[in-house]
Every structure is written in structure tokens, then in C-alpha cells.
């Protein structure tokens, strides 16, 4: 579908979970002919890379924890040793840590969410933007609809994703002259492990079965269903490709109609 992606090199951070968005995006890029490097702190990322290789893709896996400056710099060095350039940077690292109203959360849980979701993205940008600014490229971060509308009971997550959206807008403005585009994808509920964990937590808090909470969640989506990982991957392909060459600094809603404002 996107011929210009063939031969491009992509790094996808947060790609260890088989049902995760990062792996879905990595697989979609690989099927378009891009060489893909998958990174994650979970060693299962190595198995995900082998799965793509088994499909005929050019892929590799690297274990790295972006909460560490040293690990991020090592990831950069490892990547640069294998690939002469970086065309596409996908930031798909996130966690939903701590549930409760603001005054009920521990400062440690709140800070940990910022450390992973926001500061981790900053570390990756700090390390990898220099590999893109000479020839340009596309940066795509998985933010969330919660970064635009507060998700009750998950303030740390909501604030971190709002910050991530602004961080990508800053990159878009600061690196436009270098040919680098930066955009965020803001999904609503997605069929994924993270959303399943959220549903379970909310169901337990409300004292209802998870299936009941899931049904209520879907009733609030105008299109009547949660997104799939492939829905998100399709948007990422578009933003990575030349089809979106004049789009930068945007936060694209993929919420099935739950969020219609910018």
C-alpha cells in the first residue's frame, strides 16, 4: 500500500507483547518492506523479532529499559552499529500505574508513570533525533484519548499522555527545518492487554463482572466497538509514509467517535 516505506529503517520502542500495539505496528511496517528494530525492556522482544524474521522480514530485537539514560544510549549505539540511518521512530512505551483519585495515589506510583510514559519518550527523542535530522524522518508516539480528556481514576496516566502530546508538538516545530515530522496517535479503548487490565481494575472497583464493565465501555463508543491493534497500525503506516508528508504536530484521534474535538 505504501511503496515509499520499502527499504526504510524503523525503530519501534515497546514491542514485546504479542497483543501489543508496538508489535502490531512493527509487523505492519515489516510487511511494507521496512527493516524493523524492536526494543523493549522485556526479553520477549527477541522472540517477537524472530517471529517477523520467520515471515521474511528484516528485523532485530534489542532488550533495553528506557527508564535508564545508560540503557537508552546503549540502544542508540546498538542500533547505529546495525543501521546507517533511522527513518521512522515509533514510541509505544506506556504503563497505567496506580488507580484512584489524585489525593489517594502514592507519589511514587504517580512519578513512575511519568518516568515511563513521558520521560522515557524524552530519553528516546534525545538519543535518536540526531540520527534523523540530517535526512529527515517520521516520529510517531502512541499517546491516548486520556491525554485530551481526563480518565477518572488514572490522573498519572492522563497527565503523562497530555505531556507526551505536547512533547511531540515541540519536536514537530523544532525539527521541521530538518525534515522531521512528529505526530501522536490518540486511541480510545483498544483490544489489548493494557485495556484488559484497566477493565479488570475498574470492574473490581465497581464490584461488577469484567464483561459487564467491558460492555458498558463499548456502549460509550459511537462505532460500537473497541479499536483493534490493526486499526492503530494502519494509522501509524499512514503517518510514517509520504502520504502524510504535509502532516506534522498533530494528535490524531482514533477513538471510534468518542473524541471528536482536536
TrEMBL record:
Key word Oxidoreductase present: yes
An annotated Gene Ontology molecular function: oxidoreductase activity
Keywords: Oxidoreductase
The organism of origin for this protein: Candidatus Bilophila faecipullorum
Pfam family, one: adh_short_C2
Family: Belongs to the short-chain dehydrogenases/reductases (SDR) family.
Protein name in the entry: SDR family oxidoreductase
Keyword DNA repair on entry: no
Xref: InterPro entries: NAD(P)-bd_dom_sf, Sc_DH/Rdtase_CS, SDR_fam
SUPFAM superfamilies according to UniProt: NAD(P)-binding Rossmann-fold domains
Amino acid at each position: 500500500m505504501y511503496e515509499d516505506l520499502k527499504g526504510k529503517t524503523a525503530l519501534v520502542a515497546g514491542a514485546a507483547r504479542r497483543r501489543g500495539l508496538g508489535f502490531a505496528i512493527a509487523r505492519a511496517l515489516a510487511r511494507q518492506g521496512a527493516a524493523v528494530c524492536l526494543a523493549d525492556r522485556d526479553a520477549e522482544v527477541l522472540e517477537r523479532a524472530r517471529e517477523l524474521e520467520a515471515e521474511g522480514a528484516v528485523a532485530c530485537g534489542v532488550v533495553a529499559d528506557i527508564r535508564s539514560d545508560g540503557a537508552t544510549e546503549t540502544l542508540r549505539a546498538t542500533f547505529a552499529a546495525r543501521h546507517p540511518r533511522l527513518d521512522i521512530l515509533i514510541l509505544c512505551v506506556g504503563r497505567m500505574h496506580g488507580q484512584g483519585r489524585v489525593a489517594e495515589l502514592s507519589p511514587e506510583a504517580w512519578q513512575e508513570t511519568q518516568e515511563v510514559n513521558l520521560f522515557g519518550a524524552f530519553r528516546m527523542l534525545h538519543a535518536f533525533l540526531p540520527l534523523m535530522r540530517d535526512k529527515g524522518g517520521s516520529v510517531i508516539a502512541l499517546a491516548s484519548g486520556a491525554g485530551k480528556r481526563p480518565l477518572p481514576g488514572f490522573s498519572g496516566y492522563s497527565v503523562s499522555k497530555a505531556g507526551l502530546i505536547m512533547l511531540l508538538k515541540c519536536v514537530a516545530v523544532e525539527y521541521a527545518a530538518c525534515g522531521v515530522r512528529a505526530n501522536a496517535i490518540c486511541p480510545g479503548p483498544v483490544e489489548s492487554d493494557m485495556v484488559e487490565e484497566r477493565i479488570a481494575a475498574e470492574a473490581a472497583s465497581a464490584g461488577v463482572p469484567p464483561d459487564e464493565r467491558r460492555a458498558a465501555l463499548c456502549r460509550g463508543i459511537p462505532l460500537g466497538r473497541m479499536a483493534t491493534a490493526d486499526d492503530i497500525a494502519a494509522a501509524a503506516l499512514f503517518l510514517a509514509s509520504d502520504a502524510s508528508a504535509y502532516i506534522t504536530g498533530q494528535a490524531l484521534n482514533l477513538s471510534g467517535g468518542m473524541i471528536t474535538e482536536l
